[in-house]
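User: These chains co-purify. Model them together.
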Amino acid sequence: MLGVGILKGLTETARNFVGSYFRKDRLTTIQFPEERAPRIEASRNFPFLVYDGPDAMAGLRCVSCFICEKECPPKCIIIDKSTDKKPDATGKLQFYPAEFKIDVSVCMSCQICVEVCPFDAIKMDTDFELSTQNRFDDLLWPKLRLAKSNEYYHEIHPTEAAAVDADLAAARAKAAPKPAAPVAPVAAAAAPEKGTTA
Amino acid sequence: MTTLAEAPPKSTLSPSASNGDTQLLEVSMGPQHPSTHGVFRMDVSLDGETVVKLKPIFGYLHRNHEKIAENETYLGSMPYTDRLDYFCSITNNWAYALSVETLAGIVVPERAEYLRVITAELTRLQNHTCLAGFLMQDMGASGTPLMYAFREREKILDLFESLTGARMMCNYMRFGGCRVDLPAGWLEQAKTVVAAFPKFLDEFEALLNGNEILMARTQGVGVLSKELAINAGVTGPMLRASGVNYDLRKVDKYGIYDRFQFRIPLGDHGDVYDRYMIRVLEMRESVKILEQAMRDLPEGLIQDPKTKVRNFKPKPGEAYGRIESPKGELGFYLVSDGTPRPYRFRVRPPSLINLTILEDMCLGRNVADVVIILGSVDIVMGEVDR
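Assistant: Joint model of the two components:
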């Protein structure tokens, strides 16, 4: 009969409209700037560099091994390797990135840099409010802007960060029992670089 | 004998020369027409309101995916496949991973296969709900059905975000498995979403199925015959709406699809209404697969530990991996020459091939019908143009 379909449809609409006053699952909209959706832990947006200790530039875990630069699919990472070595947060002498830039207008948030990094130095951020008025300087982030503390990493990805910290501690404990021969751990740390910088 | 300077016959200058009261009007629909689902353009020749010729023009979103992939490592192409059909990034990942696994002879662990089925069927659910919503939008039911569809899709996208980190560009599959395991509580949340889904479908069907306007607009419109569908290589719900029983989940039984009990819905008429109904029925079948997969999900590895992430070099050879994506047969053809980059990378996009018969379905219909026929093909321009 003509009109029955329309009536049925309008009944459905009315049920949803009235139901939105009583049932939470029918009211799905979030009034964004005032209220926010709960943060999802696995969420990812752009990469950042993790540092240990109080000083951001001294504590960077990155040893500029160029793996992420090479594996990045859209090639948005630009690294300048240092010529000298500086002690990192654990006191070991390491190369460090003289400059580490990410072009976030090119980055496609694929997380491959995170997967290939052998030093757990680069991780994904969850910050999404990144609009800017300067399309050149504000979209090419230098290492000063990319560096975020390990505490911040724990805050945004607690489960993952705890696992990473446990891994790093295990690796350090493995390297530590041989303090008599300090040459060995340095050689072990340098080994992954040799294979990839060629 | 004609001379060179002779003017062309009058009839080709103007179609009105023949009977004086009609004149063909060429209308360019798109590339920024709101109903063309992206930057698609149709050159439509109209006799009054009737379509007498339709020329599809695409390439506005071409971004060189296949050539970029030849200069990229095998893993580096994985996030680019997300951008093909951006509604169903997980099935794109799966098709690509499947062809690389065929090429390199990698075996996928049991748990990873189940995770793939679960995520892929969730993708199918959200793609088909959106398609139904957009089809109603094209028909002029602006808002309500589309918003209901998006409300359900939102729940599935939240699941994707808590699993893969992104809502649409999931980048979830890896060669020999999946990237991450399920986080705590994910499976329970997914079970709730899937259990509530048939209720939504009931609501959606109550809203739409018997609606006179929907039936008047779609029944008998854009009929695609069985023969033409087969000859043109049409796949997916389009082909099944024309009554051809062809679903790669049953034909190839890729992954572990032979373990699940589900049926393939088939249409009778091949019109827009059948294509809409096929999608709704397929969603119900997907819910069945999801329930079985989530019930049987085993423990174990999620990725083959021998697969290398960096310096992955399959032996020279070629492989074609295809899956039933929500839009049809999605295939990746790869040629390896033993280097870390594929020698040749080719995508068989279902949207593009389903689009080739657009003119045959539209001839003799109105412009308003062209819009819904295009909507029922279910195209995503990211996949058509690549």
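Residues 4-22 of chain A form the longest helix (19 residues).
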